[in-house]
Amino acid sequence: MTHPIIVPYGAYNCKDNLTLLIAIQNDREWSNLCKIVLCDETMATDKRFKMNADRVANRDLTEKIIQEKFLEFEREDLIMKLEEASVAYGRISDMEQLKNHPQNNFLYFFLLH
Fold first, then answer.
1. End-to-end Cα spacing for the chain
2. The whole model's pTM is what?
3. Which residue from 26, 38, 39, 45 has the highest number of Cβ atoms inside 10 Å of its Cβ?
């Protein structure tokens, strides 16, 4: 699941076998992702990755680097980093995870009482 003209924009696996979707929509988000999440400020200015067109041209390498870094962290730890970096993200959940999400348990409790 990727976007044809925006990189990175897709789903990545985490250390705990859970998945996060990220969407880098501008240069500020890219720079923050590099610095705070990937822990590599040099990627933000590397000519292979600096602009979205560069990342599209180097899609495989960009996604490989991101995927390798994401596999170092559990999803909730990455979420904290993504929030600190102000990067758009979303959890991708299976039906069991969705059923057990705390917000759904609250709603279920509220509707039954």
1. 40
2. 0.83
3. 38
